[in-house]
Design a protein that fits this description.
Elements (H helix, E strand, L loop, with lengths): L18 H6 L3 H12 L3 E6 L7 H5 L4 E8 L2 H12 L5 E6 L10 E7 L8 H10 L1 E12 L5 H12 L5 H13 L8 H11 L2 E9 L4 E7 L1
Parallel strand pairs: 1-2, 1-4, 2-3, 4-5
Antiparallel strand pairs: 5-7, 6-7
């Protein structure tokens, strides 16, 4: 249920290894999350740690979204994202491979980052960069795995749906590795809100109801 990353972190799991299985498996909890996030977006959107572009189909259904830029470090993830984008010609898309702290972007209306935060080695610096890249009144929607997540339970619940999928074993293994990895930064909802407000964001909405209480999702405004 983890996604990809936009900022390198020494010792973190290989995201290229995860690309194909991540793209091929979409548990109901991920669908629910993407649907909710896409509805909050408008104008020009930058996705920090876009992974394989799983948010693109949902953004395409939102007429308020004008364009989408995905940033990620994984070449394999971006290749898959580009292929997804080809099927949604109504949405202007572009993809950038690189570290978000080093990638120059045009100020934008919305920023989104879903399940990338936990891999950031410098989370405060990244959030500050996102803040700087937003127009005044711009919105950030950020979600990351919570300290309360029960990843094995979520995977067990999803397994009957995907047991015949050849990529399921890799998807399961990688998500367990994410949770067990010593560099993974699980977060409490209050901690994520405090970080955002320390940079200058104003919290519009915050919940830990997704992933059965295992994911923190915050909507904040510049």
């Amino acid at each position: 249920m983890g996604a990809s990353m936009s900022v390198s972190q020494d010792g973190i799991i290989s995201w290229n290894d995860y690309a194909k299985s991540f793209q091929s498996i979409m548990p109901p909890v991920m669908i629910e999350l993407n649907e909710a996030v896409a509805k909050k977006m408008f104008g020009h959107v930058i996705d920090y740690g876009c992974g394989s572009g799983k948010l693109i189909p949902y953004l395409n259904d939102n007429a308020a979204v004008k364009s989408y830029t995905g940033i990620d470090l994984s070449e394999d993830m971006l290749a898959l994202a580009s292929k997804i984008a080809e099927g949604f010609s109504g949405l202007t898309t572009r993809f950038i491979r690189g570290n978000v702290l080093q990638v120059p972007v045009t100020p934008t209306d919305c920023a989104v980052s879903i399940n990338s935060f936990y891999s950031w080695s410098q989370p405060k610096q990244v959030v500050r960069k996102i803040f700087e890249n937003l127009n005044d009144g711009g919105v950030l929607v950020i979600g990351s795995l919570s300290k309360s997540i029960n990843m094995r339970e979520l995977l067990n619940d999803a397994e009957p749906l995907f047991l015949q999928n050849e990529y399921w074993p890799d998807f399961r293994r990688h998500n367990i590795n994410i949770i067990d990895h010593p560099n993974t930064k699980l977060v409490e909802l209050s901690e994520l809100c405090d970080l955002l407000t320390s940079i200058g964001f104003k919290i519009s909405h915050a919940t830990d109801s997704f992933y059965r209480g295992g994911l923190c999702l915050v909507e904040a405004k510049k």
